[in-house]
């Protein structure tokens, strides 16, 4: 595929330009803030590299769109994708970062960090025996690159890891992989749920009473997409202690509005979408590698299926 003109639209467009320009690529580049992207830019371009488009554009004029993040829901969710346009996404250290993020909260819970901190504040000496990872059962929703890396890390430490995917296809590092329809009977055994799923019409508000109602005090970690969770159902499950605690890194609306009830719930931990940050260096490296593969007609391991949404 011949790619001559490329628009890069990002809040970090200056940093990205500083990383791309020294590579002295033969392509012509325009760098703009995503708020300033126009249809005229796209009419000029053969390719667009962006992540969070703030407006609706006609993307049929370009040959290729590359997401500067792992997610592509900003391009696909409840939108029609021009079938002839290639869509790719960034693949870098997301799996390792998310695995370590999730592990940190599992250990915080099992080692009673919060409880001991509260005791210290009261100058109270009360021993409690920490629990072991190899006695825990975890179910990970999403068995792609990110979910599989999290499963690998946890399995290495002795955790019994189950997976849920749309296909139910077996994957390495999972004791068993189930479909959404067949996994409900397992939920009562789980100590923790980890969501890594992308946002599609099939996963929107997936995490609701239908899932939470089966739990027996499990911890819930969401590092997938915020809109996969029904927030009212989660709050109800927390109040009913079906969910013991929730760690939330992603939300349907970001930044999370100050009036949102999740901020004040004592059993909710909130982080500002940092579990899998794409550094400019990683994003540029993946983009340039993908550009070279696109121009050479090579197989793309980060190609997105618009019909599946990932």
UniProtKB/TrEMBL annotation:
CDD domains: 2-Hacid_dh_1. Signal peptide: none annotated. InterPro entries: D-isomer_DH_NAD-bd (IPR006140), NAD(P)-bd_dom_sf (IPR036291). The keyword Protease does not apply. Keywords: NAD, Oxidoreductase. It comes from the Bacteria. Residues 105-275 form the D-isomer specific 2-hydroxyacid dehydrogenase NAD-binding domain. The keyword Oxidoreductase applies. One of its GO terms (molecular function) is oxidoreductase activity. Coiled coil: none annotated. PANTHER family: 2-HACID_DH_C DOMAIN-CONTAINING PROTEIN, D-ISOMER SPECIFIC 2-HYDROXYACID DEHYDROGENASE NAD-BINDING DOMAIN-CONTAINING PROTEIN. This is Dihydrofolate reductase. It comes from Mesobacillus campisalis. The lineage of its organism: Bacteria, Bacillati, Bacillota, Bacilli, Bacillales.
């Amino acid at each position: 595929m011949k790619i001559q003109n490329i628009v890069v639209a990002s809040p970090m467009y200056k940093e990205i330009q500083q990383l791309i320009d020294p590579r002295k690529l033969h392509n012509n580049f325009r760098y703009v803030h995503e708020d300033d992207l126009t249809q005229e830019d796209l009419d000029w371009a053969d390719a667009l590299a962006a992540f969070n488009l703030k407006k609706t554009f006609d993307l049929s004029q370009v040959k290729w769109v590359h997401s500067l993040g792992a997610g592509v829901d900003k391009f696909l969710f409840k939108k029609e994708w021009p079938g002839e346009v290639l869509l790719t996404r960034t693949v870098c250290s997301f799996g390792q970062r998310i695995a370590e993020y999730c592990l940190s909260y599992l250990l915080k819970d099992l080692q009673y960090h919060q409880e001991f901190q509260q005791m210290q504040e009261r100058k109270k000496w009360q021993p409690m025996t920490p629990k072991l990872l190899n006695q825990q059962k975890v179910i990970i929703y999403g068995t792609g690159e990110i979910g599989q890396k999290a499963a690998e890390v946890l399995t290495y430490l002795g955790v019994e890891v189950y997976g849920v995917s749309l296909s139910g296809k077996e994957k390495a590092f999972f004791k068993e992989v189930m479909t959404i329809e067949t996994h409900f009977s397992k939920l009562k055994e789980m100590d923790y749920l980890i969501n890594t799923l992308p946002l599609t019409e099939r996963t929107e508000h997936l995490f609701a009473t239908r899932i939470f109602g089966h739990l027996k005090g499990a911890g819930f970690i969401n590092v997938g997409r915020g809109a996969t969770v029904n927030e009212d159902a989660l709050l109800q499950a927390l109040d009913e202690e079906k969910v013991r605690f929730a760690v939330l890194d992603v939300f349907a609306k970001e930044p999370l509005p100050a009036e949102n009830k999740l901020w004040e719930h004592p059993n909710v931990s909130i982080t500002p979408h940092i579990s899998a940050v794409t550094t400019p260096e990683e994003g540029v490296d993946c983009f340039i590698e993908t550009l070279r593969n696109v121009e050479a007609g090579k197989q793309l391991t980060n190609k997105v299926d618009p019909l599946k949404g990932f």
